[in-house]
Design goal:
With 110 residues, the protein is an all-alpha fold. The protein has a domain at 1-26 and 42-74. The chain has helices at residues 2-16, 45-70, 105-109. Helix 1 runs antiparallel to helix 2 (45-70). The radius of gyration is 28 Å and the shape is elongated.
Length: 110
């Protein structure tokens, strides 16, 4: 359950990584491989957006996987007692009763 709570923090850290990437005219010696000229080539915007989208998709997938493992289950393999379906979803439940008809002003005037 703690991993689910730390997922937004991980997402924040991963989304801040592009801020460390060198931009146009960035200082030499930033992260990345420095070519022989001493300048680091800037990261293309399309690459940065692709990175952010992949981080977002990975966080969604990670959240789903953690949710699947965090669900309580019955030892018999079915859903836990607290996960019983609500009214109208249980096939053994009786059908819901219709609401009583409400009288309107026009009905009372007759």
């Amino acid at each position: 359950m703690d991993a689910v709570r730390l997922l937004p923090v991980l997402g924040l850290v991963l989304w801040m990584i592009p801020m460390l990437w060198p931009g146009p005219g960035g200082p030499a010696g930033s992260l990345g491989v420095m070519p022989s000229g001493g300048q680091v080539s800037p990261v293309a915007t399309s690459r940065a957006l692709l990175y952010l989208f992949c981080v977002w998709a990975g966080l969604c997938a990670g959240g789903f996987v953690l949710w699947m493992f965090a669900r309580p289950e019955d030892p018999a393999g079915g859903p836990a007692a607290g996960d019983a379906p609500g009214p109208g979803l249980d096939p053994a439940a009786p059908p819901p009763q219709p609401a009583p008809a409400r009288s309107t002003r026009a009905d009372r005037a007759r």
